[in-house]
Amino acid sequence: MLNMFNRFLDATSEYIAHRKGLLPGLGILFVVMNFVLQFIPIGGVLIEANLLLHLGVVLAILGIMLAWIL
Fold first, then answer.
1. How far is CA 48 from CA 6, 11, 43, in A?
2. What are 31-66's pLDDT values in tens digits?
């Protein structure tokens, strides 16, 4: 199990190392989706808790930090 997790982390870090703007881009996309969904009467808990906004900000910050390291 631990060996499989190590291989997953290695593959993920290699993938992200060559695409440094992927995670911040996804974070910005989540923030924009949260903004747009506020004006549509669907969404429920996602919009009331601003879940996409919070997830997008955390993902963008994490992506910037990983891009700096890698």
1. 37, 36, 8
2. 999 999 888 888 788 788 899 999 999 999 998 888
CA-CA-CA-CA torsion sign (23, 69, 58, 14): positive
Tokens of 54: 């919070």
Q: In this structure, which amino acid lies at residue 1? A: M
Q: What is the pTM of this model?
A: 0.78
User: Could you state, in order of their start, the residue ranges of all structural domains in the chain?
Assistant: 2-69
Task: Please say whether the beta carbons of 34 and 56 come within 8 A.
Answer: yes
Which residues, in sequence order, are CB contacts of 57 under 8 Å at separation 6+? 27, 31
